[in-house]
């Protein structure tokens, strides 16, 4: 199987690339905007003008996994046009070039739990109403609908994966990176919210496991899949665990102010990926211990 990973320098993309390159039956190509001189199967893209035509005109891929795009709710509020370009327009551009040059290529799109917003009930199943709370969430919904458009009118096989709170080695943004950065050189930390907000955390190795199961087994009939562990964990508990693992001594408090675009409570219904064979391998305690060891290597 010949696989193209768009956004292969990003957090999820690089882990997928490394995973598939260990498999002898996979011919795996990376694609991103950062220069790479040591990888003969890497395609450099222009950051301001993604030329997907040249990729699909010159190569036949059995599957394209789109890990590219912006992944920041606050940034999407500040610069919605940039977020739209990366998370929505690029999906259309990718699918349109697949339609023209490689219509048998399956398209797996990384979406987000942000499409749900604040759910009315937990756990959140894939058929729940979509009520995004940020431009980022809206643009992810649009991208999912573009996948449906290309399936309905052009019979392009596509599916979307709604990833919840992914974390792990090499991630330098979001909650746990923020905790680490704030802990450096300080014995007091202030966080947004109350600490009672919840997330459904999933380690990057389990994200990769779930995506691989979907790539192998999905009908690609514009299916959507939650990628999470079906476990609701309080933000305070997760922060305490990481601070314990990195050996931080101090005091932290929550300011009782929620950031715009941030949901309050998340827990996914993961029956669909469990039916494909998914089983959690890394607990939050194990994952944060591993992440803390990686952080210590940065000091």
Automatic annotation (TrEMBL):
<protein>
    <submittedName>
        <fullName>NAD-dependent epimerase/dehydratase family protein</fullName>
    </submittedName>
</protein>
<dbReference type="Pfam" id="PF01370">
    <property type="entry name" value="Epimerase"/>
</dbReference>
<comment type="similarity">
    <text>Belongs to the NAD(P)-dependent epimerase/dehydratase family.</text>
</comment>
<dbReference type="InterPro" id="IPR001509">
    <property type="entry name" value="Epimerase_deHydtase"/>
</dbReference>
<dbReference type="InterPro" id="IPR036291">
    <property type="entry name" value="NAD(P)-bd_dom_sf"/>
</dbReference>
<feature type="domain" description="NAD-dependent epimerase/dehydratase">
    <location>
        <begin position="3"/>
        <end position="228"/>
    </location>
</feature>
């Amino acid at each position: 199987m010949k696989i193209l990973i768009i956004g292969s320098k990003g957090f999820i993309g690089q882990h997928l690339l490394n995973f598939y390159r260990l498999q002898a039956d996979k011919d795996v190509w990376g694609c991103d905007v950062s220069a790479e001189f040591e990888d003969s199967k890497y395609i450099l893209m222009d950051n301001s003008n993604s030329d997907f035509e040249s990729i699909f005109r010159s190569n036949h891929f059995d599957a394209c996994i789109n890990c590219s795009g912006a992944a920041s709710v606050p940034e999407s509020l500040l610069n919605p046009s940039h977020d739209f370009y990366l998370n929505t327009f690029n999906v259309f551009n990718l699918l349109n070039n697949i339609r023209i040059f490689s219509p048998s290529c399956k398209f797996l799109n990384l979406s987000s739990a942000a499409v749900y917003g604040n759910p009315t009930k937990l756990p959140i199943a894939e058929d729940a109403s979509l009520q995004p709370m940020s431009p980022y969430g809206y643009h992810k919904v649009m991208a999912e609908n573009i996948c449906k458009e290309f399936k309905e009118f052009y019979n392009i096989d596509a599916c979307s994966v709604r990833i919840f709170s992914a974390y792990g080695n090499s991630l330098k943004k979001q909650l746990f990176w923020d905790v680490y950065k704030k802990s450096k050189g300080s014995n007091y930390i202030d966080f947004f919210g109350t600490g009672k907000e919840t997330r459904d955390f999933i380690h990057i190795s389990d994200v990769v496991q779930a995506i691989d199961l979907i790539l192998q087994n999905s009908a690609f009939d514009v299916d959507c899949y939650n990628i999470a562990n079906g476990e609701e964990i309080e933000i305070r508990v997760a922060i305490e665990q990481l601070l314990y693992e990195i050996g931080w001594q101090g005091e932290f408090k929550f300011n009782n102010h929620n950031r715009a675009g941030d949901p309050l409570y998340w827990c996914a219904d993961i029956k669909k990926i469990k039916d494909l064979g998914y089983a959690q391998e890394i607990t939050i305690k194990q994952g944060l211990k591993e992440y803390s060891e990686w952080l210590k290597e940065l000091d």
